[in-house]
Structures are given as structure tokens and as C-alpha cells.
Amino acid sequence: PAEGRPVLTAHNLLARYDGFTALAGVDLTVHPAQVTAIVGPNGAGKSTLFHCLAGTLRPSSGRIHYGEQDITHLPAHARTRLGIARTFQQLAVFPTLTVAENVQVGAEQGHVQDPAAVERTLRLLGLDGPLRSAPAAALPTGTLRRAELARALAGTPRVLLLDEPAAGLDNAEVMALARVLRALAADGTALLVVEHDLDLVADLADVVHVMAAGRIIASGPPDHVLDTLGAEEPAP
Length: 236
Ligand code: ADP
Ligand code: MG
Known about the structure:
Layout: E1 8-17, E2 20-30, E3 35-39, H1 46-54, E4 61-66, E5 69-70, H2 76-82, E6 84-86, H3 99-109, H4 117-124, H5 141-153, E7 159-163, H6 171-186, E8 190-194, H7 198-204, E9 207-212, E10 215-220, H8 222-232
Parallel strand pairs: 3-8, 3-9, 6-7, 7-8
Antiparallel strand pairs: 1-2, 1-4, 4-5, 9-10
Helix pairs in contact: 3-4, 3-5, 4-5
The structure holds adenosine-5'-diphosphate (ADP) and magnesium ion.
């Protein structure tokens, strides 16, 4: 149930690497206060779609709108400034900076300049204790993912793009992540989440899109879409 206008819209996105077509015409809308999930096998084009939305890859055709504004040709840093934050499947924190310094960088690059954002974000993700002063390079995966999420959140984005946020997390960490993401959506943030953990998707998502071979092949509420998937490829 999508209420109101989408905050992010992709129209007929095509993307190529050399001759290879990684996105073959993707339409997508992302709404405030909703979790939109993208699932699909490796190589489906999920990360490529994220790169196009975030501005790190130029689509070969198609348009991207942020509200009414056409952002198809805006560079990544300008989209971050407008309120589109992202995390990376391959984590991208600054290894020599501390957790708090990484979050500070995120705050400075972000949409809203809020002096309280760094502390608020560190607290939200449980990074306000001794971890705040730890160099990012020394952290285990779960903590690194939290630090990267904190960096993305510190600029108070309106849209948050998360590429496999649960990868490498243990069960307790996945549950903590789900709590944070639910709270963000409840506050009005639009979340677009690529995720392999279908239990997490079922738990969080308002809408699920299934990608395969560069296209969205099915869309709907998780109970409907994930049941269809389960029928095709039984869980291990
Ligand atoms: P997903 O995130 O769904 O696993 P990707 O978007 O990473 O898929 O990749 C989609 C397809 O594009 C894959 O076949 C992948 O091998 C190819 N691809 C991704 N990145 C590159 C690249 N930098 N150069 C060439 N091919 C790429
Ligand atoms: Mg990927």
C-alpha cells in the first residue's frame, strides 16, 4: 500500500558493462515510510540498479527522478546532498578513521547539516561506547556494517539504499538491524534494500521486487511474492 508520491522513481533503466546488458529496462518506485526490497540471484543486476540510483554508474538510457527532479545526470555526491544515502555490498568505510570520524564524514556529506546527528546516529547503532574510538580497519564485519549504516544515516537521508545489509551478520545482529530499519521507516525514511536473507525481507518489506537477468520479473507484498519464489526454488 504505497501512500503519497514516490520519493525516487526509475523509468526504463538500461545499463551495460562493455557489451553486456546488466539492466534491461527497470521501472521502480520507492515511497517514503516504506521498505522496498529487491531479491534475486547473483548476477541479476541488483547492485547495478543501486549504482545507477546512487549515481556511481551512468545508465545507458532511462531516467531517474527524485521527487519531481530529474537526477539522471547528477553525480553521486550531489545525490547524497539531496538526501539519497547508500551503503555498499563491499563495505566502504575509511579504514584509518575511527568509527566516530567515519560517521562525521557521513554527516558532512549529507542532506541535513545537524550538529547532533553524529551522536544520535552513534547511539542508534550502539556505537557510542568504546567502539566510537576504534579504527574502522580493526572491526569485525557486523560492527563494520553498523558503522557504514551510521555513516549513511548521519546525513539524515530521505532515501536509504542498502546493498545486502545483513551479509555476514549473526542472528542477533540481524534482529538488531531489523529493529533499526523498522524505526527508520516508521520515521518516514524510504528504504530500498537488496537482501538475500528472505526471512528478513518477509519481516521488513512492504513491497518486494524479484530481479532476474536485468529485469524485474515479479512484484508484490512479501507473503505473495516470496511464496511464489519458494515454490520455484525450495529452501535448502
Ligand atoms: P547482483 O548484485 O544482482 O548480484 P550485479 O549488478 O552485481 O548483480 O551484476 C549484474 C551483472 O553485471 C553480472 O552478470 C555481473 O557479472 C555483471 N557486472 C557487474 N559489474 C560489472 C563490471 N564492473 N564489469 C563488467 N560486468 C559487470
Ligand atoms: Mg550485488
